[in-house]
Amino acid sequence: MIIFAAVIEKAINIIRCKMIKCQIIQDGKVKDQIVQMNGLVFCDNHGVERSNSIRTPIVDAELNEWHYDHFGIMHQHYRGKKDNSGFQVMHEVKPALMFTLATQGFGSKSVYQEGNNEHELFWRKGNANVCFISGEGGQQVNLNRNLSLDLLSIVIPQHSIEKLIEYNEEIFSQFSLFTQCQDNTHLFLKGNRPVEKAVIKAANDLDQARLMGNNAHRYMESKIIDCLSGFLVPGSLAPGNEYYSLLVRDKMHDAKDIILSQYQDMPSLHEIASMVGTNECTLKKAFKHEFGTTVFQYLFDYRMRLAVLYLLDSDMTINDIGIKLGYDYQSHFCTAFKRKYGVSPIEYRAMQHAQDAKHEDV
């Protein structure tokens, strides 16, 4: 518990966001105020997840946050139950860059900075923008009856923006103005920009992170890079028709060997790329070109093949198999296994043993 408490404190301090007030709005008037949100908290060795569900006669809200060392992710679902309804949150936050994408629905969101200066943006599925947030500010989502809006926000602390630029200066140098920015709220674009399907897919893929066990945070980092690069440079996520030399293809097989030998705690893509003598961008594209799947999907499939072997050829418990494969929580392992094979590990083992017994009787 002491370790987890330290993880929670570290992760939340990286992206410090102190809620000042949360209000339910209708027809421009405050109808209700939420002083404190006490949601579910989940933590592992890398970060912490918090979930809150708010139900009112005017608007419903589902808020899910993941806080890690160098980034935070927020999933927000809002549903209007009355016309001219709104959900307003005022907060105090450390300087950070925030990328927001509408993944479903339609609505508007007003972003406030100190002094109540307001920027109103209209959102529909596929619209995205970036803003810099610091100090006191907030947002208000505006809806009508039976309209909903789902937003995904990726938060990068100001001190991590330089690392993003170092990763790929050609793409992320556009964020250099935020490295020293002290504005309370600074929009990257005056209006939202529609993004291509590859960016929406990368954003939706973030929901699959738990299937990756203790590589979840590295998987998230990879998808965040895809979201931001696809937003800044449309077309950069397209597969293309690249030709890779025998040398590069050999490096991909070296990368595969690293994945197989360190499947319990695979290095990051950046680390694997350095180990085989290439860069992360080439690794991601060339690996998929050579093996027909992504690095993380290859790791996932290999872990699931091993899971079947352990289930059928050993007396290990489900929990021990999950830990051996890199899943700190049995529930995460069971979810991953069922996603792959359609049944839980216990059901799979029982079915196979029943079939074996039937064959022996014959």
Written account of the structure:
- The protein is an alpha+beta fold and 362 residues long.
- It contains 12 helices and 12 strands.
- It has helices at residues 2-14, 158-167, 169-172, 197-205, 216-232, 246-261, 269-276, 280-291, 295-313, 318-324, 330-341, 345-361, and strands spanning 17-26, 29-34, 40-43, 48-55, 59-67, 72-80, 85-113, 117-124, 127-143, 148-157, 185-187, 193-194.
- Strands 1, 2, 3, 4, 5, 6, 7, 8, 9, 10, 11 and 12 form a 12-stranded antiparallel β-sheet that branches.
- Helix 6 crosses helix 8 (280-291) and helix 10 (318-324) crosses helix 11.
- The N and C termini lie far apart (53 Å).
- Mean pLDDT is 83; it is low at 1-16.
What is the count of helical runs? 12
Structural class: alpha+beta
Low-confidence stretches at least 5 residues in length (pLDDT < 50)? 1-16
What do the pLDDT scores average to?
83
Distance between the terminal alpha carbons, to the nearest Å?
Answer: 53 Å
What is the H/E order? HEEEEEEEEEEHHEEHHHHHHHHH
Strand content: 25-35%
Q: How would you describe the shape?
A: globular
Main pleated-sheet profile: 12 strands, antiparallel
Strand element count:
12
Question: Which percent range fits the helix content?
Answer: 25-40%
Radius of gyration: 23 Å
